[in-house]
Amino acid sequence: MVLSNSDILRLHSGDALTEVVKHLSQEKINLYAEASGDFNPIHIDEQFAAQTDLGGTIAHGMLILAYVSEMMTLTFGENWHSTGKLSARFKTPVRSEDTITITGKIDSISRDDNSLNFICTITCHNQQYQTNVQGKATVKVLKS
Fold first, then answer.
1. Residues 28-63, buried b or exposed e (16+ Cβ, 10 A)?
2. What are phi and psi of 139, to 5 degrees?
3. Tens digits of per-residue pLDDT, 47-92?
4. pLDDT tens-digit map of 3-27
5. Cα–Cα dist 28/30, whole Å
6. What percent of the chain has pLDDT over 70?
7. DSSP conformational letter for 4
8. What 3-state class would DSSP assign to 87?
């Protein structure tokens, strides 16, 4: 459930963002390849990918960042779409059949006359608690 602006304005430093959990599959990766037009064989050709150093197919990085964006939208609603910024680093690949958990927390909130400015840490990890993605997100929420 997306938070309302009045709920967002009650958030504090240290608060957790709305967690998102996703179970990947080769089918989901293939569907993303169709939607994005990215048919790199490392994502969709299991025989090719098995011969690489990665040892199998991996999810598109932008698919994983879409799940990060989902978490930010659940927490900050339209504010994320209109003012959000994300800086992320990929640490380890996400594989088909991984279950990933996207979490975040509010590091700080600065206030000015018309808005609250949130700085958040985001993390994505798999079922083995390997970190896949780490980053920072910022979002500005206008005061009502």
1. ebeebbeeeeeeeeebbeeeebeeeeeebbbbbbeb
2. -150, 140
3. 999 999 999 999 999 999 999 999 999 999 999 999 999 999 999 9
4. 888 888 889 999 999 999 999 999 9
5. 5
6. 99
7. P
8. strand
Q: Find the length of the chain.
A: 144
Q: How far is CA 50 from CA 4, 23, 34, 39, 93, in A?
A: 46, 21, 21, 16, 14
The terminus-to-terminus CA distance of the chain in angstroms comes to 20
Classified by CATH at the fold level, domain 5-24+60-142 comes out as Thiol Ester Dehydrase; Chain A (3.10.129)
31 token code pair: 């569907």
Q: How many whole angstroms separate alpha carbon 10 and alpha carbon 5?
A: 9
